[in-house]
Amino acid sequence: METSTKMEKSIDYKKDARPVIGIIVLFFGTLALILAIGLSISFGAADIKLATVWTAVFHFNADLTAHQIIQEIRLPRVLGAAMVGACFAVAGALMQGMTRNPLADSGLLGLNAGAAFMLALCFAFFPGLPYMYLIMYSFLGAGLGVGIVYGVGSMSRNGLTPMRLVLAGAAVSALLGALSEGIALYFRIGQDLAFWYAGGVSGTKWINLQIMFPWILAAMIGAIILSRSITLLSLGEEVAVGLGQKVKTIKLFGMIIVLILAGAAVSVVGAVAFVGLIVPHLTRLIVGHDYRWIIPCSMVMGGLLVVLADICARMINPPYETPIGALISLIGVPFFLYLARKGGKEI
Fold first, then answer.
1. Is the pLDDT of residue 258 over 80?
2. What is the pLDDT of residue 45?
């Protein structure tokens, strides 16, 4: 009887999968992302025609000022935004699948705050640290944040519930944020930390992308490889075990991937929350509960969301920029409150 129930749940998720819709989302989402990247490159203090953007990308001429602006400033910026959005979205999707907690997000569960706290320590005690080491310390900080959150959230007789996990995440994030602020004031590094607290991609350089790209690529491939196991795990640990999955191993590798994605993203853009909450939910609503489609679609949609947010950040009050973290929070906070009102249930 128990085996039959497990098999029925496994069959349910297969019926819920919508591969045709997933292919459509990937195709049109990728086209929209490419168009958004082109618009982002062309728009700025000096507007540049899309034809010039195309020429600068594929036929670079170092003698032209417009080509230099595109290649050295705007192209790494927009590619960084797309990569960061993909990282946050996939990390959120993995966390929601592994914990069966629809409120899970790297910003809400202390990963972003932990990474920012470790960066504050780096700026205070190791100024001028190479970017490669900043990424490594971001990974460690993200692990510290999520470890404390899970430890605090588990200190209850009733165990770790979705709402308790979110409350623990909010408390730990506030604590780590306060410690980071204290370090910034004492060591007078507030200017250096302002970029990470505000959330933005304006300082992204090619060297940043070259260092983080191999990590992100490896993590994305790992996420896709784990996607089927994450789907079974999202049905419940008993179901996953009954279908031959090694739950502890899946969670270990899944959390390593989440730490890599969140740590790399925070080291570039700062503590931007809600991308990993919004995108996986909307993707799941469109393509179903099969993570073999949720993860790649979240990758594309997350990149599109952050690129569009970056465009809006430059349009609101030119020539000044609005932090993209604030813009995304305008959508994310009501979305989070809506989910919390439903008791943490799926849409």
1. yes
2. 65
